[in-house]
Amino acid sequence: MLEPMMSLLAKVIEIYSQQVPIFIGFALLFSILAIFETQASKPGKIWWRNPGLFTDISYAVIHGLVGPYLRLPAIIIIFVLLHGRIGSGDEAVEFFFNGRGPLSGLPFWAQAAIYLVVSDFLLYWIHRIFHGATLWRYHAIHHSGEEVDWTTTYRFHPINLAFQPALVYVIMLALGISPEVMIFLLPLDLLGAAWVHSNLNWTLGPLKYVLATPVFHRWHHTQPDEGGSSNFAPMFSFWDWLFGTFYMPAGKQPEVFGTDDPQFPEGYFKQLIYPLTSKEKAEAPFDATQSVDSTAGSR
C-alpha cells in the first residue's frame, strides 16, 4: 500500500508546485487594487490595518495556507484506503487521473465542469445550514471580523471546515471526480474565496446574477436585517437568485460587519473554544433556512 500512496503524493506535489506563483500573483493583485479609492468598497480600509489581522493571520497559516493543501491529499488517501481496490503504483496513478465512480468515465473538462457546479450547489446549502440555530455558533467565527478583506477568507472553525470543503471533497470523490481535477481546481476555490472577501467595489454588472462578487459577499457579512441572511453561494450567485436569497441593493456598499455579540472574543484559540463555552451567546440571529425578500437587491 505504501507504493500507491507515494505515487499519489508525488502527483499532488507536482501539481501544487505549478500553482504557487498563480496563487501569489492573484493575492497581490487583490491587495494592490484595494489601495485605490475608486476600486475599494471601503476606501482607506487596507487589510494590514485590520484590527483583527493577527487573528486572520493565525487562521491563514493554520487553516488557509497549510490546511487546504494537506486536507485534500489526506482525504484522497483515506478514500483510497477505504476503497480497498488500489494495490499498486500504476493503479494509484490511474485513480489519480480518472477517479473511481459513476462519473469517472467522463473526460477531464466535463468532470471539472460538473465539479464546479455540483460542489457549489452543495456548499450553498451547507452554508445555509450553518446559519441555522444548530451550527451557527461555529460559523459565527467566520462572521466575527469587524472588517472584511481577503484575509477573512481563512477565518473558519475546524467543525465548519469539516462539513463544508471536506465533506464536499468526499462526495465528489464518491461520484467519480478524479483527484487530478479536484487538485487542479483547488487554486480556483481558494482564489475565488479571496476574491469575494476582498475590499473591492466590483459588482460585474449583469454578471452579478451569475458569479459571486466582492460586493455580493460583503453584504453577506453584514447584520441579518441588512443582508446577512442572504448571498450564500461561494462562486455562482445564481443559486441565491434561484432560491430567493439574492441581495444586492443598487448603488450601495455594505458598511458594518461582524456578529451582534459584543463579547465575541478575538484570537485564534479563544475562538476555537467559543462555540463550546458560549453556546447561549452564539445562537443564530436569524433562520437562514427560509427564503428572504430579495426584491430590493435584484435590480
Parts with pLDDT < 50 across at least 5 consecutive residues? 293-299
Tally of alpha and pi helices: 11
* Mean pLDDT rating: 81
β-strand amount: under 5%
Order of helices and strands: HHHHHHHHHHH
Number of strands: 0
Main sheet characteristics = none
Distance between the termini: 57 Å
Q: Characterize the overall form.
A: globular
Q: Helices and strands: which structural class?
A: mainly alpha
Number of domains: 1
Helix content: 40-55%
Any descriptors?
299 residues, mainly alpha, 11 helices, 0% strand
Task: Walk me through the topology.
Blueprint: H1 2-35, H2 53-65, H3 67-83, H4 89-98, H5 108-130, H6 136-139, H7 158-175, H8 179-197, H9 214-220, H10 238-243, H11 268-277
Helix pairs in contact: 1-4, 1-8, 3-7, 5-7
